[in-house]
Design brief:
8-stranded mixed sheet; about 140 residues; about 35% strand; alpha+beta; 8 strands
């Protein structure tokens, strides 16, 4: 059974990634299931299933690996504001493993609780999450 379409936007600091009618937007958040109109997505996949006129439930799904950000749902509109959105097909496992190794090294060398340690922790989490996305493709 098709769901009624609603408007969705996926935005990054570099600009708009997606803007259109969808049947569904899915993402993971830091609080698990979404029970409010505002949530904080984690590094994870985000997908938008565009809805076209006369389209059934077999419509195309566009998937991105997303950075941290915000998800807002209000009335018949969803807005995903994230630090980055990378097409899952553009993820490079070798590059991500190298970035993970570098981030783990920086984390080891950083003073506990410092800004450098916090940034390294975020970079480790991002690389691990994006590697998991590649492995689950």
């Amino acid at each position: 059974m098709a769901h009624p379409p609603f408007h969705a936007q996926v935005l990054t600091p570099e600009g708009e990634v997606y803007d259109g009618e969808v049947e569904q937007v899915s993402t993971r958040t830091g609080v698990g299931e979404i029970g409010s109109s505002l949530a904080t997505p984690r590094c994870s996949p985000v997908s938008c299933r565009p809805s076209f006129a006369f389209t059934s439930s077999d419509s195309e799904t566009i998937r991105y690996a997303q950075g941290h950000g915000w998800l807002q749902v209000f009335a018949n509109e969803a807005r995903v504001l994230i630090t980055e959105a990378i097409s899952i097909d553009d993820l490079d496992a070798a590059d991500l493993r190298e970035r993970l190794s570098e981030a783990e090294q920086r984390l080891e060398e950083a003073e506990a609780g410092s800004e450098a340690a916090q940034q390294a922790e975020q970079d480790v989490a991002r690389a691990k999450a994006f590697l998991q996305i590649i492995e689950s493709k």
